[in-house]
Amino acid sequence: MRRAEPGLQFIPPHYQPWVRWVIHLLLPWWMRTQLQIAQVRVEGAGALVPWYEQLQNNQARVLLAFRHPTLDDPYVMLYLLSRSVPQAARAVGAKLQLPLHNYFVYDRGIPLWAGRWVGWLFSRLGGIPIQRGRVDRLAIKTIRECLLQGEMPLTIAPEGGINSHSERLAPLEPGLPQMGFWCLEDLAKQGQELPVVVIPIGIQYGFVRPPWEKISQLLTRMETLCGLPVMSQSPETPTERQEWLYGRLLRLADYLLTQMEDFYRRFYHCPPPELPPDTDLAVNEHLKIRLERLRNTALRVTEAFFGVPGEGSTVDRCRRLEAAGWDWMYRQDLHDLSPLARSLADRIAQEAELRLWHMQLVERLTSVTGDYVREKPSADRFAETTLILWSVVTHLQGKDQPVHLGKRWVAVRVGEPIRLNDYWETYCRSRKAAREVVNQVTELLAERLQGLIQS
Predict the structure, then answer these.
(1) DSSP E strand stretches across 319-431
(2) CA dist 105 to 1, 74, 132, 161, Å?
(3) pTM of the complete model beyond 0.85
(4) Band of the pLDDT at 278, cuts 50, 70, 90?
(5) Is 381 in a helix, a strand, or coil?
(6) Bridge pairing between strands 37-43 and 5-6
């Protein structure tokens, strides 16, 4: 960013069926060639057919809660709704009005890094942008209006962002259940009593063929970038191969942590706290402690610059920092500034973008764990962890270089709906009861999403 930009404007949804038809036609080619998805396995698509029938007859309101392990998930959801559900409807003789589609909530920041054309496209596909880290009243108002109208389901990723793990659920945010209860409130104001349900959708990826060789090649590439000697050997058994690759992952993680600890010590005067003296801790436990301390250091550096409190979870802190950075980079008062003040605004926008680099590093490090591979040393988990480290390395280099490790399959599973009407009476008792009910539904949703993951 070379200069401050005008304040971010809300991009209202303006669904155009013809745009959705074009995407529908291109989807198989895109998934096959660009996403390297060779197989799509759908379980339970027929369970969505009666809910679409009720939606189209104005007899229900539906929220779809999908898992969000990768950036490819929206395409998978589009495949489910545009192909699998119509096929299931035809199989049982149900006559749905086509095309089937959905409203969806997305991060307002996506058009900033993916391109302004994405905002145009998402708007024509029924997307509703929301600014994270603040109360986005216009987005909430639009979401409530779309739910109340009930023309299509509303699709949201309750994990709030990508967690990069197909077989591990990230903590859920309570926003989706809250939106469902707002819908019940709005329906009650109109004197309507309709079922409002949250339907969990599991998404899980794997490789058609275990990409052991490509995992090793990507590790070699990172070892070379880091100046580490390449661990060249030829494991003879699967167990030896797993231990060999796991050792390389640990060594690479240790190197990156050491470099970043020294970086913050030397240039930001933030030495990392001493590790516990307990030498019996496993290596991955030490890495876990160091990761947490590095994340806190990077966030404190950024929070001190923006003057925001370091409260809440790592995700909360990242969202708060993103919002603060955007306030300095995208100025609502830009047109009122004098030429001199405009120059100063440009300067602070540049600095804000540089400081958000630390927050973006933390977002990548949040997906790094010390036990995901050790818990189950499969090729899929090795691949996911290696790709996470690759995203860290490329971020440190100031580059964005996505890589593919081979053809993948994706499994989509439709779970058991959660009927929010069953909690409505308790929700209405008091504000405290409402918060407790929202948390209770969030926990139940997490259980059902976790149950859709198959190891």
Answers:
(1) 330-331, 408-414, 418-419
(2) 26, 11, 11, 11
(3) yes
(4) low
(5) helix
(6) unpaired
